[in-house]
Amino acid sequence: MHRLAVALLTVFLLYGCSPPPDEESLSSGVDTQTSTNKALSAALSNTTRPRTIVIASDPWCPHNCEAGSDREGYMVDIAREVLGEAGYTVEYVNVSWARALQLTREGQLDAVVGAFMTDAPDFVFPDTPQGRSTIALFTHPDNHWVFNGLGSLHNQKLLVINGYSYTDELDRYIEEHQANPERIWVIAGPSPLDRAIYLLDQHRTDIFAEDIYVMAWWERNHNEAIPPPRRAGVVDEIEAFVAFSPAREDAKELAELLANGTRRLLASGRIQQILDQYGLSLWTETP
What we know:
Strand content: 15-25%
Number of helices: 9
């Protein structure tokens, strides 16, 4: 799936049971989409190139979007600009989140984007976040359930994405009940959001945990055949980062470089210019 001081808090107000058989298995070593396979294979084959940083994630737009699209996500844009100014080439690929964490931890990829500190506490994080997330719980629009603390999750089936962290509070709940398929359902894959919303629409689960900006982006661009899920309550806010592989010897140097560059872009107003491309604001706008 933590937070900043007051100045950056306002700045980043815009801020990750058994799966069905068609879900990705980490042990398979193969992603489910051919285009994803090709992009990942190319990235892995190029990891020995000097001054090339390969970052990965599943699409989580607007924070990080589809690799190769016109808008790859504001966090990817920030990383490209800061690291590019320092002479690095940034490559961005889409794989499932759990696999992105695995490959980055092993040093086969260089960084993940859209990470919470609770996602991978062993990774190397900048001391300034590149984004901010607000995690909420969503239901089918006909469901009038309201989140009122963890106790209100009793008798509800919660759908979550494999490898995601959702704040300390919700992570503890998921860990406690993950063996009970009537309470926790974990799905996986390189593009899990559409599947999660489909399952919610089909009443196969009661609740789905997701970032409010991701859901707002989906609603603006979604297939109108599926009604937008209903927000049933906010769990918490959390900082989001580009986090570097602990296997890289220069991970601390890269994290410091990205932190300094993020602060510089913030002070100059450049981050707001980047956010404008995604319809986001540094201050008071909400989806």
